[in-house]
Amino acid sequence: MFWTLSLLLAVAILAPQGSAKDPQTFKPFKLKTLDGTRKTLADYTNKLTLVAFFYPRCAYCKVALPEVQKIYDKYKDKGLSMIMINVVPQENKLIPKWLEEHSLTAPVLIGASQASLMRDYNLKATPTHYLLDDKGAVLLHQTGYNAGDEKLLEAKIVEALNIAP
Question: Taking a C-beta distance cutoff of 8 angstroms, is the pair 70, 82 a contact?
Answer without folding.
Answer: no
